[in-house]
TrEMBL record:
EC number assigned by the record: 1.-.-.-
Family matches, as InterPro entries: F420-G6PD/mer, F420_G6P_DH-rel, Luciferase-like_dom, Luciferase-like_sf
Pfam families according to UniProt: Bac_luciferase
Keywords in alphabetical order: Oxidoreductase
Primary enzyme class: oxidoreductase
Name of the protein described by the UniProt record: TIGR03557 family F420-dependent LLM class oxidoreductase
Organism of origin: Plantactinospora solaniradicis
Gene3D superfamilies: Luciferase-like domain
GO molecular function: oxidoreductase activity
Domain Luciferase-like: 13-290
């Protein structure tokens, strides 16, 4: 059965409300939670960006069953990889082994706050070095590491869960899929891309988890949902090569000015139609994903969405 997740969107919700959403999502029957790890929102209209790891600690304490996952942490600029490993191990302990660390090469939007944003080729090198540091630390090794980008003279994690924290890595092509296969336990891909899943299988990922994320906007009024999606989610229509490079929310506002409500509504199902939202999920299932997390766009609709998910969406998905 495909796991169904719920996204804690730090860009659109404050920290206390995120913890409340996590508790309600567990009650509703979701299998896992993913949380975005950003310094800025994508657009000013979203209006939030609390520290994801503080929220995760509170969520780990406030929940008991539901699995937890970052989506996605960048370990190459804003955080040193050795510190990412320590944070992940601590959340693993606090959650009694419910946590998965998901990693990726990040975006300028969030990482430039501590210095210049590296070139894409350098970022990929840095991500591989980060994995070479994080993986052994989570496995309980004493680590000394000297790379082109990172130095770890000596490190050891004193508090770790009994089972090492699993690592998932975002991939979109052959190079990143190779990183997943060599260093990680699971694949992450933002699009229902069957080709990436096939590459992962061919590289040795058969039988391992593949995580995706489907954005929707449930609500009784389709037009109102479209306005919400255009106001808060139109940045998602941009190509990832653009999204990775823009430096701030004002840049995303400018870059997405040309996107109309009807354009973004083609990417994000809007309104009360259950089957339209199920279809967004099904695309990932058909592409070979094992776990799919919903993003409910818009902060105002979260309580209504969670009630609807418990009563209608999750029972329908269990039928698939």
């Amino acid at each position: 059965m495909v796991g169904v997740g719920y996204t804690l969107m730090c860009e659109q919700t404050g920290p206390k409300e995120l913890v409340e959403q996590a508790v309600r999502a567990e009650q509703a029957g979701f299998d896992y939670l993913v949380i975005s790890d950003h310094y800025y929102p994508w657009l000013d209209a979203q209006g939030h960006s609390p520290y994801a790891w503080s929220v995760l600690g509170a969520v780990a304490h406030a929940t008991s069953r539901i699995k937890l996952m970052t989506y996605i942490t960048c370990p190459i600029r804003r955080y040193h990889p050795a510190v990412v490993a320590q944070k992940a191990a601590t959340i693993g302990v606090l959650s009694d082994g419910r946590f998965t660390l998901s990693l990726g090469a990040g975006e300028n939007l969030n990482e430039h706050v501590v210095g210049a944003w590296p070139h894409v080729h350098q970022r990929h090198e840095m991500l591989e070095e980060a994995l070479q540091i994080i993986r052994p630390l989570l496995d309980g090794d004493n680590l000394s590491y000297s790379g082109n980008h990172f130095e770890v003279p000596e490190a050891y994690l004193w508090d770790r869960p009994e089972t090492p924290v699993p690592i998932a890595v975002a991939a979109s092509g052959p190079h990143s899929v190779a990183l997943v296969t060599e260093y990680a336990d699971a694949l992450v891909c933002d699009n229902p891309d069957a080709a990436v899943v096939r590459m992962y299988d061919e590289a040795g990922g058969t039988g391992k988890p593949r995580y995706g994320q489907a954005a929707i906007c449930y609500g009784p009024d389709e037009d109102a949902c479209r306005k919400t999606v255009h106001d808060q989610w139109r940045w998602a229509a941009l190509n990832w090569t653009v999204k990775a490079e823009l430096p701030g929310p004002e840049s995303f506002v400018s870059a997405s000015d040309h996107i109309r409500p009807e354009d973004i509504a083609q990417l994000v199902p809007c309104g009360p139609d259950l089957e339209a939202h199920v279809s967004a999920f099904q695309k990932y299932v058909d592409a070979g994903f094992t776990d799919v997390a919903f993003v409910q766009v818009g902060v105002e609709g979260q309580p209504m969405f969670l009630d609807w998910a418990q009563d209608e969406l999750l029972p329908r998905l269990r039928e698939l």
